[in-house]
Amino acid sequence: MEAWRYLGRRVTIMVPTLFFVSIMIFGLQQLLPGDPALALADEENDPAVVQAIREQYNLDKPVYWQYLLWIGNVLRGDLGESFRMKIPVSELVLTKLPVTIELALLSMLCALAIGIPTGILSAIRKDRPADLIANFIALSGISVPNFWLGIMMILLFAVHLQILPASGFVPFFEDPAQNLKSLIMPAFVLGTGGAGVIMRHMRGAMLQTLWMDYIRTARAKGLRERDVVMKHALRNALVPVITLGALEFGQLLSGAVLTEQIFGIPGFGKLIVEGVFTRDYAVVQSVVLVVAVIYLSLNLAADLLYYVVNPRLRG
Questions:
Q1: Prediction pTM value
Q2: Taking a C-beta distance cutoff of 8 angstroms, is the pair 185, 281 a contact?
Q3: Highest mean pLDDT pick, 73-77, 110-114, 140-144, 236-240
Q4: Domains of the chain (ranges, CATH numbers)
Q5: Structural contact between residues 205 and 241, judged by C-beta atoms closer than 8 angstroms
Q6: Using CA atoms, how far apart are residues 115 and 99, in angstroms rounded to an integer?
Q7: Integer CA distances (angstroms), 131 to 40, 117, 182, 205, 240, in order
């Protein structure tokens, strides 16, 4: 019962947050320079044509009324129609979102596979060569720009070694092997930054946990050091990493613009860029809102995992 109350409190916080996020998304979109009606008219400067376009897309109405129409449609599941491509935005989302989610999942797996083990090793080998090497790897992952690392990997693995495709994307159900090949490099590029952040937090959490009284008690009982670290210290040290992992995954979903451009991945990043340049309001607003919903949902999932892992919250 307590778990349901905990979930209810978190969901209650999400509702007003999403409301204010939707206002910000719509309001900031209006600040973009240019007139979408003129952009849609192309070279047709006939005022009657421009006015007809404004009426068709409700651009002739006050901003607050446009917002109410938009949010009302969103609540009914209608994300509108793309000004540029003349197709429902929901179709674009259903097409592009799985691509970005797959890329983000692979990147997150890469970040966790690198960050957690190196963080643990760095903590238990504090001030030793292994600690220095792990910190060097973490700082390198955080410092090296994604676009530079992506270009270097293309030059090495696609141009010189010719073992991976330089760009493009193949759907998983069309060819699983080729799909994995097309995502290995962009997933690694995105995952390195997250790996460095996770490693640093994992190291700090482990160092703090290893000095706790219950850890000294476990050692005094004669438990093997491996069991002390993996069964007792790691579980508590993972608590802050869970929250961090959810935030990192949200950033991967929303921050893969450059990487998707470099590797030619047809995901959310490219869709947002194209929508901004063509002033496709419906696309930009809907894509950013979907990312915001996913981000808040990930935070909710992190809170629930935090509740499961940390028994003090259940008390």
A1: 0.79
A2: no
A3: 110-114
A4: 2-75 (no CATH), 94-277 (1.10.3720.10)
A5: yes
A6: 24
A7: 57, 12, 33, 15, 21
